[in-house]
Amino acid sequence: MNQRSAYLELLQRLKKLALLHSCSSLLNWDEETYMPSGGAEHRSEQLSLLAGICHENLIAPEIDELLSTLENSTFTDDPLREEAVNIRETRRLRERAVRVPKSLVEDLARVSSLSTESWKEARQNNHFATFQPWLEKVLHLRQQYADCFTSSNSRYDALIDEYEPGQNTATLTDLLVPLGESLTELLHSIESSTHKPDSSVLSNTFPIDAQRNFGMHAAKTIGFLFEHGRLDVTTHPFCSGIGPGDVRITTRYQLNDFADSFMSILHEAGHGIYEQNLPEEHYGTPCGLATSYGIHESQSRLWENFVGRSLSFWTYFFPQAKAAFPEALRNVTLDVFHFSLNAVAPSLIRTDADEVTYNLHILLRFELEKQLIDGSLIASDLPEAWNEHHQRLLGLTPSDDRSGCLQDIHWSGGSFGYFPSYSLGNIYAAQFFEQADKELGNLDTLFSEGNFTPLKEWLTHNIHSLGQRLRADQLVERVTGSPLDYHPLVNHLRNKFSRLYHL
């Protein structure tokens, strides 16, 4: 077989694998949205079967033979060439996959699905004990999974690498701990300010239908294509890229909390815009996939916070908001609304957290999941440990499990090692936004006119279109000219909140 034929066969196999993964994604989306609770057992078997089939396809000896042929070819001379990227990243995925038994892959899919259903019930009933046995099962399986790659004392590194290639516990600690210290210092300054927002304006009555329509309008305006996507309701908002032309975002609605739904829609629309602008011609291959979870998160955090919480964004949207919610916003001014949307205060719920305290929530989870994975913290002790860490980092102690260790879906599905991607996303977003503002001119002027296209196109050109041609750290340096650095985020927050709180 010549090299071109070998490469074409590799592409064919990768696209078949991508179609199988898309079937799993659709089943997962349905599980979180419309599936009746009685279907959980059957759904877990479906997902387990598909996970096993995907695994078999990836570790097939034929893939190894094709890669071996291609790795010594001229295709790999230029590391940024399409063929070189697909060969390199497929090898990486396969080398990880061959270490893991098929039975473990199937067990993880099955148990994670059932565990998620248990988490939903436990969260609704505010009863951690319901979920604890399932958490123990998932945790045990993820420890086994990590042990396929490394010794037990560095399990967490193996899981981090799944989401953030090139990162490890040490590098993340060196990044997140000083970031947390800087943000804690800023938080204390804000708390000492006598200039406070009137946060009650966001707790007025905002009709659900109007929230949905307004949120969809905003998502469409910033660039999410509803002819290639949809918006649904779920317990924990997420975005699912099913495949080309089918990207689904979700939110949740509360009658007396405008920000919860609206900011979730913007956040998930940011993920969705990334998915909709990956190069369709490379679907099924690494060149058509997002760089990393952290880079993906940078897109959602950028649209949610750097755009959606800006005064210029609301200069354009606030008159429309007043028309959509005439009773709730009758006597509210733009400045009062904008300040309330950017209120800073320690909170119990991560997804409700402001820009300053959000990363402290991530630091809490980073510390706890390290301990869960290395075995120094057992599942039964999680509620107490969670409350202790929350008090230390944010000065608040949850009064119940729902507002404590049951608030996030991630661990029920086995996503240990995922949480640091959120903070990485915030850091990347600050660097990207700073660079975009330099290159495009004054973004605030564009936003105040309702023009978000230049930013979306800049992001597509510099990030979305590249797929996995570069690792995350390489991408950041290429786009911004600087390595990964948390200081632009801290500077952005200091400047923004010094103005708002008159520091």
Task: Describe the overall structure.
- With 503 residues, the protein is mainly alpha-helical.
- It has two domains: 3-149, no CATH class; 169-501, Orthogonal Bundle (Neurolysin, domain 3), CATH 1.10.1370.
- The chain contains 20 helices and three strands.
- The protein has a three-stranded mixed beta sheet, with helices on both faces.
- α12 crosses α13 (334-341), α14 runs antiparallel to α16 and α16 (420-440) packs across α20 (487-501).
- The longest helix has 31 residues, at 3-33.
- It is globular, with a radius of gyration of 23 Å.
Labels describing this entry:
63% helix, mainly alpha, Neurolysin, domain 3, single chain, globular, 503 residues, 20 helices
The CATH class of the largest domain is identified as Mainly Alpha
Beta-strand portion reads under 5%
CATH architecture of the largest domain: Orthogonal Bundle
- Biggest beta-sheet profile: 3 strands, mixed
Total number of distinct structural domains? 2
The overall strand count is 3
CATH topology label of the largest domain: Neurolysin, domain 3
Order of SSEs: HHHHHHHHHEEEHHHHHHHHHHH
Average pLDDT metric: 97
Structural class: mainly alpha
Helical residues, percent: 55-70%
Tell me the radius of gyration.
23 Å
Brief rundown of the structure:
This protein is mainly alpha-helical. The chain has 20 helices and 3 strands.
